[in-house]
Amino acid sequence: MKRDLDLAPQMVLNAVELEELRQRALSTGIEESMFAAGTVIFREGQRNTALYLLVEGEAGLYQDDEAGKSVMVDRLGAGSFLGLISFWTGAATFSRSVAQTDLRCLRMEASQLESFARVDVGFNRLLIANLADRYRRMVRLNLSVAALSRALEDERNQLQSALEELGQARTRLIHGERLATMGQLLAGIAHEINNPSGALERSIEGLLTQVPKLPADESSRQLLAAGAESGWLDSATAQARIAELEEAYPGLPRSLLRRLAPLSRDVVADLHADLLCGNEPAARRRLEQLLDVFECGLNLRTARISCERIVSLVKSLRSYGRPDGDENEHVNVAECIQDTLTVLNHRLKRYRVEVDVGEIPPLKGSATELNQVLTNLLVNACEATPAGEEITVRSFCRDGQVLIEVADRGHGIPSDHLERIFEPNFTTKRSATGYGLGLGLAIARDIVCKHGGSLTARNRTDGGACFTMVLP
Amino acid sequence: MNTIYILVVDDEPPILELVLRDLAEIEDYFPIETAASADEARAVTRRLLDSGAAIGLVLCDHIMPGENGVPLLIEMHASERTRATRKVLLTGQAGLDATVSAVNRAGLAHYVRKPWKREDLVQVVREQLTRFIIEAGRTPDRYLRVLDAALVSEALHRGELEILNE
User: Fold this and answer.
1) Which is the most buried residue in A70, A106, A135, B111, by most CB within 10 A?
2) Taking 80 as the threshold, does the pLDDT of residue A293 lie above it?
3) Element (H or E) spanning A42, and its range?
């Protein structure tokens, strides 16, 4: 940015008037001085006994700035006085006067000036005009300085926002990098768990077919099968069964009643009455033995179901965080939703999660990135929704586009924030609305836009917010 | 003499089953009641207390569908009828905040990290039940087989407990 100060000399008298004044001055014995271009007429700090009136040419006033560099502070043209202030006040000159061009000047000593000034009206007018001109120039100068400061301020603000944008871009890069690292880590862990969980699965399958073939009596076999196929008793049913059994077999200790509770009534009825009613140690041992066999079946069932959970979690983790995910693969939206729900299960547990996924044709894009968006929306929904309330995930087709909605039961979003929440670094996390949004939504929208879609937020009429992703 | 119950709260059936199995030998002395959620736990608590029983110990899961375990423990601690109940948090992932709030506001006695070892859980339960008996000023006679012997003898020594039959 460069802006020249308007230092062009002003003519205070027109050329004719000036020439007439010159003639009058010369006739009173005032002499003319000539300076070649570049001549220094006054130095800073000099005492000055003569006043020069510039008749022809141009002079510059210079001063050294703080860095010792010579700066032109004013330009004077024909009709201007040189050394006016130092001559009149007797103070040392405070700037250096240099001939910019060849100069012709009238040189007036104090004695000459007094007599000339007393008689010549034109000279007095010129003097006043000179002072007025200098004042005008000072005002203009101040305006220029103000304009300069403004320009500087603008420039500074621009720089500041450029800096902020750079900072945001950097944060996003780091965030993206961290996500990529986590994805790799996740895939690595999933891979490591995959082999042992596969082995575990096969071992349990083996046990389930082999254990029933072990030599055993008929009731043991039945109990084992009953255990392996048993479901889980809910607390109330277990309690009722214990009470029922206690009444039927008052001699049994609570711990045995508890162990008998998961057995169906038929199976208990098939047990020999001596085992349940008697108190002899041999009968008690036999009962415990049979219960051990039943619980062996229960253990096999628990092992099978827990292993199924691990296997499906590992499968979800593997497709969720696949680091080498193709940018242009065929994405199964229903699978993405299922994988994300599985991975976030520990957080979603506290809410009622309603999932409604219709028939969706495969999309072109990156499953990993779609999962990232879903994760972000679901985590936000968790943060907004009170525990035990409902979070809804819906997906359906409309007009050839795929819509995915994540709706919560939070306080909703103030209407003036509905767009702003997608801006980088916009967050209300610490405020009462409970929406923890930093970079997440900005990145989510970037991803959806990259897929040629849109991501918008709205408030539901019956409370809470709803984020809608539309994908082509 | 009214019965002293153990209340176990966890939403996952396999976990409840595991706890029950681990505590089988204690159940002959302190019957166990289970609940799959904070709400169910409240109902069970009311039923037991109204029948004149006491709850000596609550073993409560942390993360459950709906309400998590810490508010339930805080509520039980605030209620006159269950203040003395020993509170143990059973947790796979309690963060510092939840733990601090459970210790400060629920009078949390212990926290058991999942997965636990059978003998560790049994020891925690025995120790907490013993403390409940001592603080409630109950005669420990019929529970002696499952109480923590060292704690009982200390309490006898200090005169905080009295054995009637021996």
Assistant:
1) A106
2) yes
3) strand A40-42
